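Example complex used in Figure S2.
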Amino acid sequence: MKNKAGEKIKEKEARTMLLQGDEAVVEGGLVAGASFFAGYPITPASEIAEGFAEKLPALGGKFIQMEDEIASMGCVIGASLAGEKAITATSGPGFSLKQENLGLGIMVEAPCVVVNVQRVGPSTGLPTSPSQGDVMQARWGTHGDHPIIALSPSTVKETIDLTIESFNMAEKYRIPVILLLDEIVGHMREKVRIPSPEEVEIVERKRPRLEDREEFYPYLETEDHIPPMPDYGQGFRYHSTGLFHDKTGFPRGKTEDARRLMDRLMAKIDENLDDIILLEDDLKGDEEIVVLSYGSTARSAISAVVRARQEGLKAGWVKLKTVWPFAEDFVADLADRVQEIIVPELNRGQLIGEVEKAACGRARISGIHRYDGTIIPPAEILAKIKEVG
Amino acid sequence: MKRKEIRLSGAGGQGMILAGIILAESSLFDPELYVVQTQSYGPESRGGASRAEVIVSREPIDYPKVVKADILVCLTAESLEKYGQEVAEGGVVIADDSFAGEDYIPPEGVDFYSLPIIAKAREEIGLEVTANMVALGAVDHFLSEIDSECLEQAIEKRVPGGTEEKNMAAFRAGQQLLAARV
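Predicted assembly (571 residues):
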């Protein structure tokens, strides 16, 4: 493996360690080929910046601590356009500040990973306590219609896997991918095996051939809606802008360009939902009640469902790893088969709205909500299963 | 094996989280042991309540937090008051004797040890900050899942360079506190 300067990057070997979720983002990122980090430290995500600061330079990559969050996001987009696998990490307050440039990243189709280790908000909230309060912000935080991918791990192992997945999806679909941890997963330590890069699938962006330089259009409509992307500085004529643009990358201020580009940006995600939507379930087919959750809450949900089944209740669980795009078809099918879907969340009710929309009245939907910085204990979910059962 | 839940509580700066990390890291030597370590602390780096939780099990661990501790360590009166009743039957409570007096009544079926943890660290080791290792030595007595040797190796690996000897002495002092009592 070589970095862009042609320096050899040390190959990494698989190893088992006790790792925090935040540290797992670093390890997963390095396996996926992360070569650039720009960010501003913030609890409970600082360990990610610390880890990249320590490890990236030694591997030939770059770490920059920027003056603020929006500048970090701009830096990450720039690095991405220059061919780096770029990542930044923050928490709610910083995620708010990144939103404008996150939209730019979507518009110029810059593959990158934005980690948000969620803490309780709004504003500076409870810095050291967990939350899942930024789920809708991950979807709609930046203005205007836009596609987005957001993944949310519930274990340290999943954090490694989904960090790799985030880079892969970013590269494959030319889009910023949001990795939504919460403080519990970010700071929790578990024994995990870090894979070597040879063991996992690593996706690289589609690049144009150098000999096609003269005929090159950076935002050409292709069959898969994903235009090949050269690195800045390779000699391709290449312009990137947040304005609606045509295939040349230059804005013409035309309504047909706006519609065409928006439709293409949406299509590259909408036509690949099967590839993007990752979830896990333990459904035996006889369920009357299903607990649907994501992130650290899923661990409480699984614990509660296991106990409910031991007590003879017909319960099951679904764990979403991909939060956005939402698993609408899956939930619609589920609503046809079960009586009740329980959605525990560390917020006042965010993803539950999507569940209600998908279920469309065909199953009862109920929520369990905590927003005081404490995790939902399994007993509370078990009590709810019994109450509705 | 049922999951074993350990809660280490005290004030920020007493090293409860480091003790939790060392405890969790000592499980690395047993490839079949699952472990989860979580923590809770305030925004301040000294003072405020601080706790680390470690769960070990032979089966995958879903819920990562302590429900009812099998081993509870309290280095402050506040932490004993807060967690003193959330202990499982058959469990143990280990508290520093500077505050853990007669007014604490452990739940039914729970053994209570009031030990000179901080005094040992201060007087015998000469460093009050090693109280976390003294506490870990006491915990070791009730931790059949993890070998003392693994804990010692984890301590050597984690504590700041040059302090290994003092920390190890503190750990052994903690072990002896219980060897003398039980």
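The domain at 4-116+140-160 of chain B is CATH 3.40.920.10 (Pyruvate-ferredoxin Oxidoreductase; domain 3). DSSP finds six helices and six strands in chain B.
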